[in-house]
Specification:
Length: 198
């Protein structure tokens, strides 16, 4: 069983850092902007189910927008990332959501990700309001994360896996390595109705 995910969003919002934090447990402080796209594949076990998880990391620069749809057309999950500290990035996120809705296969799950929450001091509520507004017309799924601190990353992917019980039945390619995903909310926090607890 396999699942395909794609990360979309403007340049510098932290797409590659989220993927690296999830797959390798760290981030690259000297990472250069992704050119075109990069691919990571993992063998995942989640709540007793095993499947192959392929992640496309796409470029945020506008010159690559024309070719990006080839990476998300058959995706099961589209993670659309915005910068929590920069509301201007919301416009890029909404643009990508419209692209996914019009060009991806039917049934794709869209999750908005407000990354860089480590830069937010006392204004988390306004960031969550932005996420709710962005996701209102696209399934109302969102998460708040900090790839730098590693917060919300496990919850983000566990939340996504729980949303797509049927998608994991699709055929995939060869696994690369095994990653165990823990269930979210181990500290007792409740998960929001349409957002993941971070």
């Amino acid at each position: 069983m396999s699942i395909k995910a794609v990360f979309l969003g403007g340049i510098g919002v932290g797409k590659s850092s989220i993927i690296r934090r999830f797959s390798e447990g760290n981030i690259d402080n000297f990472h250069r902007a992704t050119v075109s796209a990069a691919f990571v594949q993992k063998d995942i076990e989640f709540e007793g189910k095993k499947f192959e998880f392929g992640i496309w990391d796409t470029a945020g620069a506008e010159q690559f927008r024309a070719i990006t749809p080839i990476y998300f057309r058959s995706a099961n999950i589209a993670f659309i990332v915005a910068d929590a500290s920069d509301s201007v990035s919301d416009a890029d996120a909404e643009w990508w959501a419209r692209e996914v809705m019009s060009k991806a296969d039917e049934g794709v799950v869209i999750i908005f990700v407000m990354n860089k929450m480590d830069l937010i001091q006392d204004d988390q509520k306004s960031v969550e309001t932005r996420a709710q507004k962005l996701s209102a017309n696209y399934g109302e799924h969102y998460c708040l994360t900090s790839a730098l601190q590693g917060t919300g990353i496990t919850e983000l992917f566990a939340f996504a896996f729980n949303l797509i019980p049927d998608a994991i039945r699709k055929a995939g390619s060869d696994p690369v390595r095994h990653v165990d995903i823990e269930k979210p909310n181990e500290d007792g926090n409740e998960t929001k109705k349409n957002g993941c607890s971070c």
